[in-house]
Structure formats: C-alpha cells, structure tokens
C-alpha cells in the first residue's frame, strides 16, 4: 500500500467525521434558531413631546481665494 492511498483513506475518514459533526451540530448562526422576540416600545403619544434638535455645529468655512 503506497503512502498516497493511505493518505487518501485518512482524508476520507477525516472528511466523513467533519461531515457527521456538521450534521449533528446543525447550522451555525441564526439559521435554525427561533426568532428573537421583538421589543415592545411605548407609543410615542405616551411620551412627552421631544424638543426640536439643535443644528449640528459647523466647522470653519474654507473658500477659495483667487490669485492676484
């Protein structure tokens, strides 16, 4: 038996183990999990009216000066 065939057999065994583990542990991430319940927020009318937001501070205005 050559080393290539031994390596091939070992590769098949490892691949089968990895495939079996993937099937047993199932999908990774949010797939397969129940959806998270949505947060219930109070209605905007129940809250005090929000004050208008102040404009964002502006930096210095840089204008081009023509060469004289």
From TrEMBL:
Region (Disordered): 34-68
The entry's keywords: Membrane, Transmembrane, Transmembrane helix
Ranges that cross the membrane: 6-29
Biased composition (Low complexity): 40-51
Highest taxon above the source species: Bacteria
Stated name of the protein: Dynamin
Organism: Bradyrhizobium cytisi
């Amino acid at each position: 038996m050559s080393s290539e065939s031994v390596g091939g057999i070992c590769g098949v065994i490892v691949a089968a183990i990895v495939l079996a583990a993937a099937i047993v542990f199932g999908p990774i991430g949010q797939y397969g999990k129940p959806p998270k319940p949505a947060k219930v927020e109070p209605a905007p009318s129940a809250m005090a009216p929000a004050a208008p937001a102040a404009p964002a501070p502006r930096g210095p205005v840089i204008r081009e000066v023509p060469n004289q």
